[in-house]
Amino acid sequence: MHMIGSAQRPLVIGTRGSKLALTQTQMVAADLEQRGLAVRIETFVTEGDTNRASLSSLGGVGVFAAALRVALLEGRCDLVVHSLKDLPTVEVPGLVVAAIPARVDPADVLVARDGLRLADLPAAARVGTGSPRRARQLAAARPDLSLVDIRGNVPTRIGRVRGLGTRAEQIGLDQDRAKEDLDAVVLARAGLRRLGVEDVATDDLSETILPAGGQGALALETVADGLAAEEGRILAQTLRIVDDEPTRLEVSAERALLRYLEAGCAAPLGVRGQLTWENNATELLAGVLELRARVVGDNGESVEVSGETTVLLGTDADQRDFALAAAEQLGVDLATELLANGAGEMANLQATKESGTTQS
């Protein structure tokens, strides 16, 4: 028997083939190698990579995760690196998100021609985004803009902004240069930072657009039985170290809200958890977890809710589970408040059915 991650049995990490997905996976692989594991990367093609229809028509961001999860279950890889916001909130039997590394700033940013900020864009400026969440929040702030539904990886989207075609090629535009037909696009800061091109951002939109649940975070998913087996012991120990507790608490609250509302990619819903740690008199690590959520309707009407809970983090599993339960309950509480304030009718959201199905 060889340990997973040994030279005789390298850890096989599955990923999509986009520039950002590969970059993120290479970052995770490098970290695991520094921790002593032997690693090999395997690339898989998902429906979201080959079908150019809008994400909402394909059923949400789950189209990026499905093929990778099948590869895990079939034993073609041992670990998958997802962008957490692309991962449906309902778990797949047999799989577990074993680690969520510390996330990058989850804010959305504007990438505009001539260094323009959102307030500087002229009326009728063409702004590209494929996200209903971004589109509705942006339209609420600037109803005079012309929003364009777009698809494609980060270099492709940057390449559509007037004057930025060359920059897109520099970071790996994997097709002929797109027509530079947009004044701006909206992207996640985390993706730009990981690709080393954060400087193309011209405005921070964190006060204008609440991000997607889990945005900026990575999810390291694997087969639960593999971690429990003797050959997975070192991998399990390593992933426990990689897992970042503050990030997991934040995204657990965000995803609990999404799961309760059955809200996937097509939902015009933004949510942001933020944890502030403090040392209290008992020397237990304590923190305040704040959560905000916003739903925007077709006509710019919106419902926004916020709340907070105190979490105590100890060293044993029971204390960890208690903190996670508090985070998830905060998400459920705010989801209930959204529904009570009419967000369900506004955005076609609903409480989770007993079956536990999702539209993600």
TrEMBL record:
Its EC number is 2.5.1.61. Keywords: Porphyrin biosynthesis, Transferase. Its cofactor is dipyrromethane. Residues 249-339 form the Porphobilinogen deaminase C-terminal domain. Transmembrane segments: none annotated. It holds the Pfam family Porphobil_deamC. It catalyses: 4 porphobilinogen + H2O = hydroxymethylbilane + 4 NH4(+). The keyword Transferase applies. One of its GO terms (biological process) is heme biosynthetic process. Belongs to the HMBS family. Tetrapolymerization of the monopyrrole PBG into the hydroxymethylbilane pre-uroporphyrinogen in several discrete steps. This is Hydroxymethylbilane synthase.
